[in-house]
Amino acid sequence: MSPFVFVFLSSISLLGLADACPCPCEKAELCHQIRDKRDFEVFVFDVGGKTWKSYNWSVVTTVATFGKYDAELMCHAHSKGARVVLKGDVPLAYIVDQNNRTDWITEKVNLAKCQFMDGINIDIEQAVDEGSPEYYALTDLVKETTEAFHREIPGSQVSFDVAWSPQCIDKRCYDYVTIAESCDLLFVMSYDEQSQILGDCIAMANAPLNQTINAYDQYLNLKIAPQKLVMGVPWYGYDYPCLNLSQDGICSIAKVPFRGAPCSDAAGKQKTYRWIMKQVVSSLSGRLWDDKQKAPYFNYWDPEGKFHQVRYDDPESICLKTEFVKSKGLRGVGMWNGNILDYSDDPVARQQSALMWNALFGC
Ligand SMILES: *[C@@H]1O[C@H](CO)[C@@H](O)[C@H](O)[C@H]1NC(C)=O
Ligand SMILES: *[C@@H]1O[C@H](CO)[C@@H](O)[C@H](O)[C@H]1NC(C)=O
Ligand SMILES: *[C@@H]1O[C@H](CO)[C@@H](O)[C@H](O)[C@H]1NC(C)=O
Ligand SMILES: *[C@@H]1O[C@H](CO)[C@@H](O)[C@H](O)[C@H]1NC(C)=O
User: Fold this and answer.
1) Which domains does the chain have, with CATH numbers?
2) Atom of ligand 2 at shortest distance to CA of 243?
3) I need a labelling partner for 75 at 20 to 30 A (CA). Which of 62, 106, 116, 304 fits?
4) 270-291 tens-digit pLDDT
């Protein structure tokens, strides 16, 4: 660094930020927060590593960073006009207290400024009873966080992650209507829809089409604006060991209770699309299509000779869901998570990954 540049930078530091938080990007303007509102959101969760380099950056609008802070990712996203937002999570019992809540918000705003981030994604997946102190504290947290971010970082975005349906899924009885009004958008996690199985204990789709779509109607019936809803689709599936596999392909699963339900997808293991695309090739059945749930699945034998059924989403099942985003004019689409496709140089993998990105925009 030339002495001249050094003097110049130290004079900026008098203004505050540059001292503790120098801009890590090659060009200083890449540290400027993104201000323009995008009509259509493509909201990507990033869990770390460097596969973000293979994202389709011509479509990404927001990256929620759930991995370690990666300055290179921030600079790159800004160069593409995309936002990068923090993850926000806190035990609700802590933030019932107003001072604690304000401290938490102040800490997050300062962190966002220091890391040149464009907002925050609040990911509280805790059980809450309607009318409890935590119920009101959560609503206040969202409102106060949004006010603080919008005031301190003009143009910033505050989003909140909600379950696939507003009907107390997994005992998350939140004030969805006020929360939606209090932030920029809700990311609807349209997956893990078998977390509470009340009927037969069998393997089912992660996000059946009807169940998914009907739940958006529930959100819309609460008078939550379609422009507040981003549809999150799964880029992963579940691998269920079958207790037995019936002649017509029904896989009975172990009873693993979850938040009041006798059975759950917790009987299976979450698997990435990358793993699934390898496994299906050597499977017993090859790719099958569940025409009721409108999603693919396959069966395989593990080395110990046990049957497994894998329930997942692929471009065909995803595009049927994202068609609904277009027809209802929702705010956008997104996925959990961006990293789990096969981004290697293998031409088959390349094609599969490109089709997954394209499926975000319908069939
Ligand atoms: C405030 O938050 C801290 C953790 O940051 C927690 O240990 C403490 O119990 C909270 N205080 C109250 C009154 O909730
Ligand atoms: C499959 O396993 C379930 C659970 O153990 C049992 O209830 C059911 O009768 C079994 N079905 C067959 C066809 O063996
Ligand atoms: C899906 O929903 C539509 C209309 O809501 C209904 O006609 C259809 O029977 C449902 N399909 C299944 C498999 O539940
Ligand atoms: C990225 O997305 C755009 C818009 O959907 C598409 O035209 C383009 O082919 C995609 N790029 C790659 C590498 O798949």
Assistant:
1) 14-237+314-361 (3.20.20.80)
2) 2
3) 106
4) 999 999 999 999 999 999 999 9
